[in-house]
Amino acid sequence: MRRDVRAPAASFDCMLARSDIEQVICSSRDLSRLDRRLAEAYADKLTWAEDDAKRQELRQQQRAWLRMRDTSCLTARMNIVACLMPVYQKRIKELSGD
Question: On the chain, which terminus has fewer CB atoms closer than 10 Å, C or N?
Fold first, then answer.
């Protein structure tokens, strides 16, 4: 259980966070908030997809985005948090914009 139930929580269980990226997300209030917003935007987009083909396409795009997020921010020669913030913000706009 979270120490502060009012604190933003990531979209996944931080007790099960294994990857470096997941651990960074869980350690940052701002990234946890963005991760939750992104998950909500993704779920909303899936809900309103026209058909199964569109939902499958969206799932593939999200998996590709996750791979890009992990590889680009782990190999970036900068702070992982500084790398992840704009990556998340851009994806949220993409999911919310259409």
Answer: N
Those residues with Cβ within 8 angstroms of residue 47's Cβ, 6 or more apart along the chain or in another chain: none
Burial level of 25, CB count in 10 A (0-12/13-18/19+)?
Answer: buried
Say if CB 55 and CB 46 are below 8 A apart.
Answer: yes
Instruction: Say how far apart CA 5 and CA 51 lie, in whole Å.
Output: 37
Q: Report CA-CA distances (Å) from 73 to 3, 64, 65.
A: 28, 14, 12
What per-residue confidence (pLDDT) applies to 8?
Answer: 64
pTM: 0.86
Q: What residues contact residue 72 under an 8 Å CB cut-off, 6+ apart?
A: 83, 87
Question: What is the token pair recorded at 79?
Answer: 């702070």
